[in-house]
Recover the amino acids of this structure.
C-alpha cells in the first residue's frame, strides 16, 4: 500500500518484485510482539551501534533533487560542529539514493555522479572524517535502487560494492529493498552482512526492508538496525501511524540491534513545533536511530532547539538500550515508559488527540520501587520537582510531556509537582460568556504555598475570575479550583484561539516555581436544525494523513481541491468528506443533535490498495465503528446516536498496517439536529 506523491515524491517508484510492481505492495501486518518475547541477542558482537545511531540523512529534505551534492554534505558536517550537534552525539553524515551514475563502469564498479560529487566519495569521506564525524552511504538489496532513474543496486555485487565502500572510508550503510527480484530477504541481507564483514572495516549496517518480512524476528545477527515500517513523510498522520507500528516491537530492540521507525522529519515544515517535539520525544523513548532529515543549512532556531535537547537525547542514548513500552493508551492518552540504566524511568505522556487532555500514571505503574517520594525531571522545561507518586500533566493537542522519574533521596530539595488544567474542552460562542474551571493540583509530597493562578486570552477578549485565584497553601492531592468567565467579542470568526493558564507558587523552603499550560479555545456556531451534510458544515478541527480533509471530494493527498468525486465500489456520491488515514474531524454539536449517518469505505481511486477502519465518537465515547474495510468491499452504512454530545469526532484509522493509500470516504455524511 505504498504510494507516490507529487508534493513530496516518494523514493519507491520502481518494482520491488521481478514483475515490476510498485515497491512494496503493502506494509507489514500489525506489529505485535509474541507474548513473553525475549529481547534478541546481538550476534554480530562487533561493538558497533551499542546505542542507536545518530546523524543526518538527506532524503527527507532533498529527495533526488540537484541540491543533494558534495557542497550540501560538507555543509551539514560543518553545521554538526558549529551548532554543537556533534557534541550532542550526532556523528553520521549519510548519503541516500542518487549519489551514483546509473551505470557501473567496465569493471563493474560503482561510479559516483561527477556533477554531484566531483571529488568522488572518498574525498567527501575524508572531509567528514576531518571533522571527527563519520560518513554513510546508500544502496539497495536489488538490481537497482528505488529511484526511477535506475541507479545500480548491490544484488549480485555485494562483495565488490562493500569493498568499494570500505576503500572510500564509508562508516555506515543503508541497504534498501527495491527491485529485489523476489529473492529471499534474509538471504539478501545476510549476504551483504558477510560482504561488509569481509572488508575488515567497521561499518554500521542499517537494514531498510520496510518490515515486510518481520526483520525484528531474524535480523539481530544480521544488521545493527532494521526498518519496521514503510517510509515516513512529513505529516502528523504518517508519524502517528509509524509510531503505532513500532511501539509493540520493544522486546526485539537492544544494544547493537535496534528497531528503526525511519528518519526524523523535524524541521521540514509539515508539522507544528509541538508535533515535532512529540516526534523527537517518542523516537527517543523508543530508542530509535536519530537521523536528522531536514536541511540544517535552512533550519530555524526552533528546529535546532528540538534536535539539540541533550536531556531528550540522553533518553535515546541510554546504555541499557531498552525501548520504551506502552503502559496505557485509552482515548489517545498514551503513557510510554522506558527503563534507564540508573534505575530511573523516562515517561512520555503523549496526546494523540486534537484537544488538550489530562494524562496520568503512577511511579508504581511505570516500574519504580515504592518510595516516600520521587524526583520528577521535565526534559523539555529542564526543571525538577518532587512527586508523591503521581505522574500527570495536561498535555496540549498532539503534544508530549517527557519526564524522567527516579526514587532518589534528594527529592525534598525540589518544589512540588503541580498540575495545571481546565475542565472540559473550551468552547465558546462569540459574544456569549462561557464558564471555564481551572485547577491547580499539588501532586508533590510537600505542599505548594503562596499559590496564584491567572489566565490570558487574545486581545479584545474578556477574562474574569469569578472565584478565588489564590491560596496560602495547597496540600498534597488537593486543588485550587477557580471559575473564569471568558467572552470572545461579538463577530469573532469561528476557529481556534490561544489561551494561557499560569500558576505561581513556592515550596515550603521558599523556592519559587511556576507552571504554564497553553490551551486552545474554539469559537463555534450552534449547529443548524434539521439534517445537514457534514461536507458543508464548519468543523472544529481536522487532521489527516496526507493533504487536507476535502469537502465533497476524495482526498488527493496534496493541495486542497485536488481530489475526485467520492467513489466507493463504483458508486459515485455528490456529498461527504474525503480523508486519508490517520484522520480525525471534529464538529461542534452543542448537545443539540441526535444522529450521524454515512456510507463509508475506501475510495476507488487507489485501485486494490487501502485498508481502513471508521469510528464515530461522541464526547470521548466511541458510539459506532466498522471493522477493517478494504477497497474490495462496497460502502458500509454507519449510523451513530450522538444525543447530548457537545462534540462529535469522525475518526479513520489505518486498519493496523500503516497509512499508505488509505483514502477513506465519509460518503453522504449527514448530521441531524
Amino acid at each position: 500500500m505504498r504510494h507516490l506523491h507529487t508534493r513530496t515524491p516518494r523514493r519507491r517508484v520502481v518494482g520491488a518484485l521481478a514483475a515490476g510492481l510498485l515497491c512494496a505492495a503493502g506494509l507489514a501486518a500489525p506489529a505485535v510482539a509474541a507474548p513473553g518475547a525475549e529481547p534478541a541477542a546481538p550476534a554480530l558482537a562487533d561493538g558497533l551501534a551499542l546505542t542507536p545511531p545518530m546523524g543526518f540523512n538527506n532524503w527527507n529534505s532533498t529527495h533526488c533533487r540537484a541540491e543533494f551534492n558534495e557542497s550540501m554534505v560538507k555543509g551539514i558536517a560543518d553545521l554538526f560542529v558549529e551548532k554543537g550537534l556533534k557534541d550532542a552525539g550526532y556523528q553520521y553524515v549519510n548519503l541516500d539514493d542518487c549519489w551514483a551514475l546509473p551505470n557501473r563502469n567496465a569493471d563493474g564498479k560503482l561510479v559516483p555522479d561527477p556533477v554531484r560529487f566531483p571529488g568522488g566519495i572518498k574525498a567527501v569521506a575524508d572531509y567528514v572524517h576531518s571533522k571527527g564525524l563519520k560518513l554513510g552511504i546508500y544502496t539497495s538489496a536489488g538490481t537497482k535502487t528505488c529511484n526511477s532513474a535506475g541507479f545500480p543496486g548491490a544484488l549480485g555485487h555485494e562483495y565488490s560494492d562493500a569493498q568499494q565502500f570500505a576503500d572510500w572510508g564509508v562508516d555506515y550503510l543503508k541497504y534498501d529493498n527495491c527491485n529485489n527480484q523476489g529473492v529471499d530477504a534474509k538471504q539478501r541481507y545476510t549476504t551483504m552482512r558477510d560482504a561488509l564483514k569481509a572488508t575488515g572495516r567497521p561499518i554500521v549496517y542499517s537494514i531498510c526492508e520496510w518490515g515486510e518480512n518481520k526483520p525484528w524476528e531474524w535480523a539481530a545477527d544480521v544488521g545493527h538496525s532494521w526498518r519496521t515500517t514503510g517510509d515516513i513523510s512529513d505529516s502528523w498522520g504518517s508519524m502517528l501511524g509509524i509510531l503505532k507500528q513500532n511501539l509493540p516491537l520493544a522486546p526485539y530492540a537492544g544494544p547493537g540491534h535496534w528497531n528503526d521507525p525511519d528518519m526524523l522529519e523535524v524541521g521540514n515544515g509539515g508539522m507544528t513545533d509541538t508535533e515535532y517535539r512529540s516526534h523527537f520525544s517518542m523516537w527517543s523513548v523508543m530508542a530509535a536511530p536519530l537521523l536528522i532529515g531536514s536541511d540544517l543549512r535552512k533550519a530555524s532556531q526552533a528546529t535546532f532547539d528540538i534536535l539539540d535537547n541533550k536531556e531528550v537525547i540522553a533518553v535515546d542514548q541510554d546504555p541499557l538500550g531498552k525501548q520504551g513500552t506502552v503502559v496505557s493508551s485509552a482515548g489517545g492518552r498514551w503513557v510510554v515508559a522506558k527503563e534507564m540504566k540508573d534505575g530511573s524511568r523516562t515517561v512520555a505522556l503523549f496526546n494523540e488527540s486534537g484537544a488538550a487532555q489530562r494524562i496520568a500514571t503512577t511511579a508504581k505503574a511505570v516500574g519504580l520501587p515504592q518510595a516516600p517520594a520521587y524526583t520528577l525531571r521535565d526534559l523539555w522545561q529542564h526543571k525538577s520537582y518532587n512527586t508523591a507518586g503521581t505522574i500527570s500533566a495536561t498535555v496540549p493537542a498532539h503534544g508530549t510531556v517527557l519526564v524522567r522519574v527516579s526514587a532518589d533521596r534528594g527529592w525534598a530539595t525540589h518544589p512540588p509537582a503541580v498540575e495545571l488544567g481546565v475542565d472540559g474542552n473550551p468552547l465558546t460562542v462569540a459574544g456569549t460568556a462561557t464558564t471555564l474551571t481551572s485547577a491547580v493540583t499539588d501532586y508533590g509530597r510537600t505542599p505548594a504555598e503562596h499559590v496564584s493562578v491567572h489566565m490570558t486570552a487574545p486581545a479584545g477578549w474578556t477574562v474574569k475570575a469569578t472565584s478565588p485565584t489564590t491560596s496560602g497553601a495547597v496540600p498534597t492531592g488537593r486543588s485550587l479550583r477557580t471559575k473564569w468567565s471568558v467572552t470572545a467579542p461579538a463577530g469573532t470568526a469561528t476557529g481556534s484561539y490561544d489561551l494561557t493558564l499560569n500558576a505561581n507558587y513556592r515550596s515550603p523552603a521558599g523556592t519559587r516555581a511556576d507552571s504554564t499550560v497553553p490551551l486552545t479555545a474554539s469559537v463555534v456556531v450552534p449547529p443548524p436544525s434539521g439534517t445537514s451534510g457534514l461536507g458543508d458544515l464548519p468543523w472544529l478541527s481536522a487532521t489527516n494523513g496526507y493533504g487536507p480533509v476535502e469537502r465533497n471530494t476524495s482526498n488527493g493527498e496534496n493541495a486542497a481541491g485536488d481530489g475526485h468525486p467520492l467513489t466507493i465500489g463504483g458508486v459515485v456520491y455528490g456529498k461527504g468528506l474525503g480523508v486519508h488515514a490517520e484522520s480525525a474531524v471534529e464538529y461542534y454539536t452543542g448537545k443539540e443533535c441526535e444522529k450521524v449517518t454515512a456510507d463509508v469505505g475506501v475510495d476507488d481511486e487507489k485501485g486494490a490498495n487501502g485498508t481502513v477502519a471508521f469510528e464515530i465518537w461522541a464526547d470521548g465515547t466511541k458510539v459506532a465503528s466498522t471493522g477493517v474495510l478494504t477497497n474490495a468491499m462496497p460502502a458500509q452504512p454507519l449510523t451513530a446516536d450522538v444525543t447530548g454530545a457537545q462534540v462529535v469526532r469522525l475518526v479513520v484509522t489505518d486498519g493496523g498496517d500503516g497509512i499508505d493509500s488509505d483514502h477513506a470516504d465519509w460518503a453522504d455524511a449527514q448530521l441531524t439536529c
